[in-house]
Amino acid sequence: CDINESDLIEYLAGDQDTAIILAYIEGVKDGRRFSQTLKEAAKAKPVIVLKSGLGKAGARATASHTGALTGSDKVWGGLLRQVSAVRVYSLEELVDMAVTFSYLPLPQGRRVGVIGTGGGATVLATDDCTNAGLLVPRFPIATQDKLKSCLRKGGLGVGLNNPVDLSDQGWDIFYDCTKIMLDYDGIDLLIVHLNADIMAPSQLPGLLAIAKHVVKAHKESNKPMAVVTGSIVSTETWHAALDCERECYENGLPVYHSLSNAAKAIARFLGYQEHRITRGQT
Question: Contact, 42 vs 85, CB < 8 A?
């Protein structure tokens, strides 16, 4: 009962079995010690912090729950930037950052390629990436022609710019298109949107085969990749998406549940690394 957040962070900073520290903080009683402990921990390994209770109602709840002072949003934001900790705003973002630090190699830049199906999802991908601070460059005609050579008859709604929307083409050309995008030097990272939430129940058994194609392309390239399964809308979708997640995680690929989550986590990860480089940290 006499262990506090500073004790735990100090211990985890020196623990060789701990690679990343995730902290949910309601309030602290010894701000000076906490600040110094956090600073030292962030020198040793990534520290990701979720601070709750910053609004008036949240502050009241924190005071009644822990008896600790919450501080202001600006103070906490300033502290976490100064000590090079990563700040998140929900438990979901906390997990997304742990996934990113655990599985995503550092991309060389912020240029992102996106491939998936469903016009609305790919359009939103551009907004999600741009709003997060990533770049979605237009593919040159030569790259679009290579993608076009993979298409079957039909092609209604297909988009070969970036993001690439395979629409009615099905998944059998997914591997070839993914390889073409990975080979293009104009992107630093590829996000694959499996979009399980719009698949009919009869299509879901094939989702794992698609994930295996993605894993194969990943193993044949040295370019970072991330996978988005989509929202879970049914029991059948949950089982299919879980199988895909296992396949990806076992082969070193980070998985997210939405394009927005992926974009925010990857942008924060890049910002963290850029900040450390600026400060001369490795």
Answer: yes
